[in-house]
DNA sequence: CGATTCTTTGAAAACAGTCAATCTGTGTGG
DNA sequence: CCACACAGATTGACTGTTTTCAAAGAATCG
């Protein structure tokens, strides 16, 4: 299973075989079956998880019990609760699998070592972080400035794969809409 | 003016006098008067700017000409368009001063040198970045899960100073509401 | 003081949420 | 293989919230 991760790091990050060998030494493989949890509220998010195959979501439970989805992840995406991961605080979120999922995980302590040892890896991760931040800024802008329909259309354009694989009611939750509203938007679009 | 910046870095970042001397060598002072721009759409955000005194906002112009405010900054906050700053792409946003503002700025190239040379500074900045990211995650969650009134109340609780110093119609823009709606929310709260 | 910016108010229209019922497809166990 | 349960999607009627438009009232600044 490591080979999927290696291919990704080679192609997207330009890492060498020596560097990959070093990373491999710390990498943990894990399978999470559909509807099973990778992380539950109250636990600490110790690992940064690369998704080799499958689909996950991170969500928070509101006071009336509603699920609010903060992010999705599919192949080639990373998944963790970065707030908990970086601070060591217990997570307020849950992460579970929407499909049977294969992960390659690195403990934060090991990740930190690798980042220090492999400048190329550090640069690559830094770029990912920057991009993740930009995306969240765009999402905020969309939330405060776009109509529900515009928000949905941007979502479909940016993430056609999510739209295909993820149930409507979860996309609605991600966009901050009721499923009924999203269902009607889809009909008129 | 550097002394305000130095005090901040000493207190919040634990930097030593030698380290401060190094930073001082790269620091540029700048004053931006009320209603004047620090950055305009199309320019590259080359500097990371520490606000020693005053108040600024970053906003984007929508297609119908509406201003959508992405962030505010006051004393002890940093201001830049980090998308442009990190990538070198022209900014899609504007930054202007809501009050006469004193800044201490570091060019990205110099900032990168300082981060490499001063591990304590790097750790400190890393923590700030983590926190900034967490805050934007919270804002997204609030946008997709809270009512307009809850969003406003969280804003007031988290940033009482903003609420005091910033005009209502700009807070409305930040929250994604019309000024009329926010005015009515304030009356009933 | 006059001009500009900011805030409030009312009324109508647009929008999204809720509730309840129904429909669809999928998969499981008898 | 069928019956049934279950997760997901849709629809209609109704309610509530937010926007829009228009006007006017404060506050601030030169």
Order of helical and strand elements of chain A: HHEEEEEEHEEHHHHHH
The span between the termini of chain A is 40 Å
The amount of helix of chain A comes to: 40-55%
The quaternary structure here is homodimer
Please write out the topology:
2 copies of one chain form a homodimer.
Chain A: H1 2-13, H2 17-24, E1 28-32, E2 37-39, E3 47-53, E4 55-61, E5 67-74, E6 78-79, H3 82-87, E7 94-97, E8 101-107, H4 108-117, H5 119-145, H6 148-158, H7 160-165, H8 168-175, H9 179-188
Helix pairs in contact in A: 4-5, 8-9
The structure holds a DNA duplex (30 and 30 nucleotides).
Describe the protein's architecture and organization.
The structure is a homodimer of 189-residue chains. With 189 residues, chain A is α+β, with helices and mostly antiparallel strands. Chain A has a domain at 2-121: Jelly Rolls (Sandwich). Chain A is built from nine helices and eight strands. The first copy, chain A, has helices spanning 2-13, 17-24, 82-87, 108-117, 119-145, 148-158, 160-165, 168-175, 179-188; strands at 28-32, 37-39, 47-53, 55-61, 67-74, 78-79, 94-97, 101-107. In chain A, the strands form two sheets. A four-stranded antiparallel sheet of chain A has the order 1-8-3-6. In chain A, a hairpin with a 5-residue loop joins β4 and β5. In chain A, α4 (108-117) crosses α5. Chain A is globular, with a radius of gyration of 17 Å. The termini of chain A are far apart. The mean pLDDT of chain A is 97. The interface between A and B is medium-sized, with 26 and 27 residues. Chain A binds a DNA duplex (30 and 30 nucleotides) through residues 147-148, 167-169, 177-181, 183-184, 186-187.
């Amino acid at each position: 299973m490591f080979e999927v991760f290696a291919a990704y790091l080679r192609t997207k990050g330009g890492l060498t075989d020596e560097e990959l060998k070093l990373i491999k030494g710390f990498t943990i493989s894990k399978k999470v079956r559909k509807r099973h949890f990778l992380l539950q509220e109250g636990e600490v998010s110790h690992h940064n998880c690369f998704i080799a195959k499958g689909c996950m979501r991170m969500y928070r439970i509101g006071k009336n019990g509603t699920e609010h989805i903060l992010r999705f992840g599919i192949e080639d995406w990373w998944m963790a609760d970065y707030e908990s991961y970086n601070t060591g605080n217990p997570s307020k979120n849950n992460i579970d699998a929407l499909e049977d999922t294969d992960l390659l995980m690195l403990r934060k302590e090991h990740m930190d070592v690798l980042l220090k040892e492999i400048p190329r890896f550090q640069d690559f991760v830094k770029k990912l972080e920057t991009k993740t931040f930009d995306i969240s800024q765009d999402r905020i802008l969309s939330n405060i400035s776009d109509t529900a329909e515009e928000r949905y259309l941007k979502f479909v354009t940016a993430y056609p794969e999510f739209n295909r694989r993820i149930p409507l009611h979860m996309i609605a939750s991600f966009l901050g809409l009721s499923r009924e509203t999203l269902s009607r938007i889809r009909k008129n679009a």
